[in-house]
Design a protein that fits this description.
seven-stranded mixed sheet, binds pyridoxal-5'-phosphate, 14% strand, 11 helices, Aspartate Aminotransferase, domain 1, alpha/beta, Aspartate Aminotransferase, domain 2
């Protein structure tokens, strides 16, 4: 058996007619930048998430930059976040001249541990960026109450979690600003780079819209120093089609996850923790194993692709050497990064594939 990790081609074939027609319509109009499909997608994203404003942008990375720029994050500010995430979460903080301040993760959820946040707050702290890792939002009530107490902003890095639900709300509808990514392998992916920011604040929404186009509030008049951060019309046309099918695709992902958990329940590994208050978007189905490298090699021989999200926590990355962290600072993130392994995950993993993977494991 040869299993596909993300099954992107399969999904394209499934919606090919609609996607091709939507892309052709853009080509016929040649409205490549800020065409009507952009606004259509933003309206549909607002409706889907319940957030008052959805603003598309060039990527999940750009979304984080727009969010922090809108909140006036400046050189010297400190931003608290998790070391167990994709580089973009902390890289964007550093890119704006601010300082990422890491806090270890919870060993069950792999998300930032709120009980360890407060000791890291200083007078320079401006915001907390929780990441909804693998699709599962962090303990947002606890994080929001710490933020309220210390007058901090909350930006949710929801690159992996579009459509996830925390206590009845999507994670795009929490915090001051929430971001997402439409990178192809994300639960809702386009055919290149794309992303979005979400907020319930009219003021922040207006500012992010202006920042997205070089800080321009009137043609060739620039209110702020901004970025070239638009999502192009073709990519919006693709997501417009996929979003129509997303509720169903998300349910299928959830079913795949439940089937994995059932099939793996007697194996010597740790299956994902599921908080009853949360419905994950299941960007990844990641298990903890003891002999990961050997296991990955053996699974590969059997036609089962695996991935590691992420093999090195961010406080140990070369680019953050100047922050002065060392091995042992965040023991849970360090241990999990050695043991975590993601299994093939998408809406279309078949029952016999899950069975085969479980048997091989
Ligand atoms: C947690 C996290 N943050 C940010 C990003 C950046 O998103 P993008 O690749 O769209 O720039 C990603 C995606 O890879 C991610 O997983």
């Amino acid at each position: 058996m040869k299993i596909d990790f993300a099954n992107l081609q399969y999904q394209y074939q499934l919606y090919k007619e609609e996607i091709d027609a939507a892309m052709q319509a853009v080509l016929d109009k040649s409205n490549y930048i800020m065409g009507n499909e952009v606004r259509e997608l933003e309206d549909a994203l607002q409706e889907f998430t319940g957030a008052k404003h959805a603003i598309t942008c060039a990527s999940g990375t750009e979304a984080l930059i727009l969010a922090m720029m809108a909140l006036d994050i400046k050189p010297g500010d400190e931003i608290i976040t998790t070391p167990f995430t994709f580089i973009a979460t902390a890289e964007t903080i550093a890119f704006l001249g601010a300082k990422p301040v890491f806090v270890d993760i919870d060993e069950k959820t792999y998300n930032i541990d709120p009980s360890k946040i407060e000791v890291k707050i200083t007078e320079k702290t401006k915001a907390i960026i929780p990441v909804s890792l693998y699709g599962q939002p962090a303990d947002m009530d606890a994080i929001q109450s710490i933020a309220d107490k210390h007058n901090l902003k909350v930006i949710i890095d929801g690159a992996q979690s579009f459509g996830s639900i925390y206590k009845g709300k999507t994670d795009s509808n929490l915090g001051d600003i929430s971001t997402t990514s439409f990178f192809p392998a994300k639960p809702l992916g386009c055919f290149g780079d794309g992303g979005a920011v979400f907020t319930n604040s009219d003021e922040l929404a207006e500012k992010m819209k202006i920042l997205r186009v070089h800080g321009q509030n009137k043609r060739y008049h620039h209110k702020y120093i901004g970025v070239g951060g638009r999502m192009d019309t073709l990519q919006c046309a693709v997501v417009n089609v996929k979003l129509k099918h997303y509720t169903k695709d998300l349910l299928l992902r959830q079913e795949v996850a439940q089937k994995y958990t059932q099939a793996l329940k007697n194996k010597e590994l740790v299956t994902p923790f599921q908080n009853p208050d949360i419905t994950s978007a299941w960007a990844q189905y990641s298990v903890q194993v003891k002999n990961r490298d050997e296991l990955q090699a053996k699974l590969k021989e059997k036609g089962i692709p695996t991935a590691v999200h992420y093999p090195m926590p961010l406080h140990l990355q070369e680019c953050f050497e100047h922050l002065g962290y060392s091995k042992g600072d965040f023991p849970i993130a360090e241990r999990v990064s050695e043991e975590i392994m993601s299994l093939p995950m998408n809406s279309y993993v078949r029952d016999n594939e899950i069975e085969y993977i479980a048997t091989q494991l």
